[in-house]
Amino acid sequence: MNKSILILKREYLTRVKKKSFIITTLLMPVFMAALMILPTYLAMMDDKEERTIAVYDPTSLVLDRLESKEFTKFHYIPKQEFQELNKDFKSDKYYAVLYIPENILTTNRAEMFSDKQITFDVKNLVTNRIENIIESEKRKKVVDETGVPDLEKKLAATKTNIKVETIKLGEEGEAVKSSTEIAMAIGYVAGFLIYMFVFIYGTMVMRGVMEEKSNRIVEVIISSVKPFQLLFGKIIGIGLVGLTQIGIWVILGIAIATGLTTFVGSGSAKSVVQAQSIMSSPGMEQMAASAPAKENITIEIIQMIGNLNIPLILFALFFYFICGFILYASLQGAIGSAVDSDEDAQQMMLPVMMPLIFSIIILFAVAKNPEGSLAFWASMIPLTSPVIMVARIPFGVPAWQIVLSMVILLGTILGTIWMAGKIYRTGILMYGKKVNLKEIVKWLFYKN
Amino acid sequence: MEIFQANNVVKEFVGHVALSSVSISVKEASIFGLLGPNGAGKTTLIRIINQITAPDSGELFFEGRPIKADDIYQIGYLPEERGLYKKMKVGEQALYLAQLKGMSKRDALISLKMWFEKFEIQAWWGKKVEELSKGMAQKVQFITTVIHQPKLLIFDEPFTGFDPINTNLIKNEILELKKNGTTIIFSTHNMSSVEEICDHIALLNQSKKILDGQIDQVKEKFKTNTFEVQYRGETPDLDNRLGANFRVLEHDSSTQLKQMKVQFLNGNSNNDLLKILMNQFEIVSFKEVIPSMNDVFIHVVEQNNLEIKL
C-alpha cells in the first residue's frame, strides 16, 4: 500500500505541475464567466448610445404618444423636413426616420428608414410602441361602438397570467414546493459534469498506461511493485487530479461570482443570475422571460433550491463521480495495457465508452421523464447509472432505488477492478502482438 | 552458498510451454550467465525470479529459504526492454525508482549523489530524460538498478546502447559489484562478454535447460583435442607421417610462418604428437584449441534442435 501511495504521488504531482494543467484550470472559470457575462455586459453597453428617431405622422395617431426609452428618443417632424430627409438622409441629427402612413389602421404597416442597419433593439422598441398605440386606438373604437359602460376596464381585468406551481409530496405527505425546471437544470448539469470528468480523466488513465508500456519503464516498475498497485495508484492519482481541478473551478467560480456581485452592483448580478439560468436550461428561459418581476424569480429560485435535498445531491454527485470514474478508468487502463498503438486504442475504446456516450444521449429524455422505465433501468445498469442517477436525484428518487443502484455499481466496480487487474498484468508485458477481445478474455484466466 | 535456487520450474502459457522443469542454482558473489537463443525462456525465468510472474510449479529459494514477496527489495533488475519516463527529470525519476525499491528518500538522495558523481553526470540531474542520448539514459538506468544495493542483480543485455568506453565502464562496475559480494545473473547474446565476466553458465533451449556448469569446465567438456601448430621449414607429407591417430584439419603453408590444425582421433597424449612433429620441422608454437563460448553455444543448440526434431 505504501508503494501505491508513492505511485499515486508521482501520478498526481507530475500532472498537477504541468503548465497545460495550470493554465486550463485557472483560465477555464474566467473563460466561462466571460462567456456568461459578456453578452449581458455588451447588451447593456449598447443601450448607452443616444438615438433620436425622427417621426413623421400625418395621421396624428402616434403624435406625442411615443414614449422615449432610456437613450432612444422620438422627435416629431413636419412634412417638409420629412420630404427633405426622404430625398437625402443626413444622419448627424437623427438615427432613423419613422413614417406612419395614413392607412396604418387597415394595413398594419409603418416604415422606418436609415442609412445604417437599424438595430434589433430599436426596431423592437418602435414596433412595440406603435403596436400598443394602434391596439388601444382600435379598442377605443370598438368600445365606443358597443357602448357598454366600463368595457375597457372590464376587458383589462380579463388579462391573466397563469403560473402553475409544481408541488412534490414528500415521504410523509407534506407538500414541498419544487421546480421541475430547477431539478432538470441541476440534474442535467450534474450528469454532464460526470460524463465529462469520466471521459477526460478515464482517457488520461489509458494514456498513462500506454505511455508506461511504450516507454518500456513498466517492467522496471513491476519488478518492485505489483502490477495491481501500479494501476491502482495511477487511477487514484489521476482521479485526484480531476477532483483538484474541479475543486479549483468551484472555488474560482464562487470567487468570480462574489466579485462580480460586489463590483458591478446588484443590477448586473441579477442579469448574471438570469443569464446563467437561461444557459442551463431551455425551460428556464421561458420562465424567466414570462415572469414580470425579475427580483422575485431570483428569490424563488433560491427558495426552491433550498427545498431540494442538497446534501443528498452532493453526496450522490460525489459518489457517482468517484465510482463512475473508477469503473471506466479501470476499463480504460486495461485497454491501455493491451494495445501498442493509438489506432488500436481508439478501436478498443469505442465499445467500452459506448454506454457512457449512450447515457449522455438519453440524459435529456431522462430529465424530461425521470420516473419512466428508461430512466429507471439506465440508473440501475452500472455503466450508465453514474450519469443517469445523478440526473434523476434532484427530482427525488425512492431511497431503495438509490441504494440498489449504488450497491450494483459498487459490486460491478469490484468485479471490473479484478478483471482490469488481470488484463493489465498480462497486457503490459505483451509487445508486438495485435490483440482482440477473444485474446483479452483468455488473459482473464491466466494464472498470475 | 547459493543465493538463489530454482528447482523444476514449470511455466506454461496458453498454447506453449515457456519453461519445462528448469533448475538453476546461483552461487553467492558470482556472475551467472543465463544463455539461450531467442524464445528459449530466459525472460520468463528472469520474470519468475523477479516475481513478476509465478511459476505453475517448482520451488524457488532465496538465500536458502523459500522466496518471499519482500525479497524483491534485495533484487535489482535491468530488463532488456527498458526505458524511463521521458518527460520526467532525471534526478526526480531516479529518486522515485529508488523509493519504489524500498529506500528512504534521504538514503536514496545520498547514494544517488554518489553514483552521479562516480559517473560524472551530476549535470544531468535537472534535465528531462528526453533530452538525454540513448547511452546517457542507459547510464541512468544502470544506476537506478543498483542504487538500493541489492544482493542479487539481474542484467538482461546490459551493454546495448553503450559505446566501447561506456561498455567498459559498466563492465568494470559489474566486476566491482561482484567483488563486493553482489551476485549477478547476466543474460546476453554476446558470448565474448560471457567469457570475460561469467563464472558459471546455464544454457536454455526451447524451454529446457540443456547445459550448465562452470565456464571453464563447460569449455573443457567441448574441446575436440585439436591443436594449433606454427612452424618453420619445409612442409612434409604429414598425412603419411602422422599415422591413423591424427588428422590434419587445416593447413596453411602459403605464409612464411606456416600453420596447421591437427586433431587427435584416439586417446594419444599431447607429447606423442609433439614427438612426431619435432622431427619434421621447427615448432614455433603449440597450443591446444579451446572452443569459444560462441562455438559451444552454436554446437549445443544446433545439436539439441536436431534431437528435438528427431
Secondary structure: elements and pairs:
The complex is a heterodimer of chains A (448) and B (310).
Chain A: H1 2-16, H2 19-46, E1 51-56, E2 72-76, H3 79-87, E3 96-99, H4 104-107, E4 111-113, H5 120-146, H6 151-158, E5 166-169, E6 175-178, H7 180-215, H8 218-222, H9 227-264, H10 266-280, H11 282-290, H12 294-307, H13 310-338, H14 342-368, H15 373-378, H16 385-392, H17 399-427, H18 437-443
Parallel strand pairs in A: 1-2, 1-3
Antiparallel strand pairs in A: 3-4, 5-6
Chain B: E1 2-13, E2 16-27, E3 31-35, H1 42-49, E4 57-62, E5 65-66, E6 75-78, H2 90-100, H3 105-118, H4 134-146, E7 152-156, H5 164-179, E8 183-187, H6 191-197, E9 200-205, E10 208-214, H7 215-221, E11 226-232, H8 238-242, E12 246-252, E13 258-264, H9 270-278, E14 282-288, H10 293-309
Parallel strand pairs in B: 3-8, 3-9, 6-7, 7-8
Antiparallel strand pairs in B: 1-2, 1-4, 4-5, 9-10, 11-13, 11-14, 12-13
Structural key phrases:
heterodimer, A: 448 residues, mainly alpha, D-Maltodextrin-Binding Protein, domain 2, 2 domains, two-stranded antiparallel sheet, 6 strands, 6% strand, B: 310 residues, alpha/beta, Rossmann fold, Alpha-Beta Plaits, 6-stranded mixed sheet, 4-stranded antiparallel sheet, 14 strands, 35% helix
Short description:
With 448 residues, chain A is mainly alpha-helical. Chain A has helices at residues 2-16, 19-46, 79-87, 104-107, 120-146, 151-158, 180-215, 218-222, 227-264, 266-280, 282-290, 294-307, 310-338, 342-368, 373-378, 385-392, 399-427, 437-443; strands spanning 51-56, 72-76, 96-99, 111-113, 166-169, 175-178. Chain A has 2 domains: 50-143, D-Maltodextrin-Binding Protein, domain 2, CATH 3.40.190; 174-443, no CATH class.
Question: Can you put this structure into words, describing what you see?
Answer:
The complex is a heterodimer of chains A (448) and B (310). Chain A is mostly helical. Chain A has 18 helices and six strands. Chain A starts with a helix and ends in a 5-residue tail after the last helix. The model of chain A is unreliable at 267-292 (pLDDT under 50). With 310 residues, chain B is of the alpha/beta class. Chain B folds into two domains: 2-220, Rossmann fold (3-Layer(aba) Sandwich); 224-288, Peptidase S8 propeptide/proteinase inhibitor I9 (Alpha-Beta Plaits, 2-Layer Sandwich), CATH 3.30.70.80. Chain B has a six-stranded mixed sheet with strand order 6-7-8-3-9-10, with helices on both faces. In chain B, strands 2-1-4-5 form a four-stranded antiparallel sheet, covered by helices on one side. In chain B, helix 2 packs across helix 3. The longest helix of chain B is centred in the C-terminal third of the chain and has 17 residues, at 293-309. The radius of gyration of chain B is 24 Å and the shape is elongated. The mean pLDDT of chain B is 89.
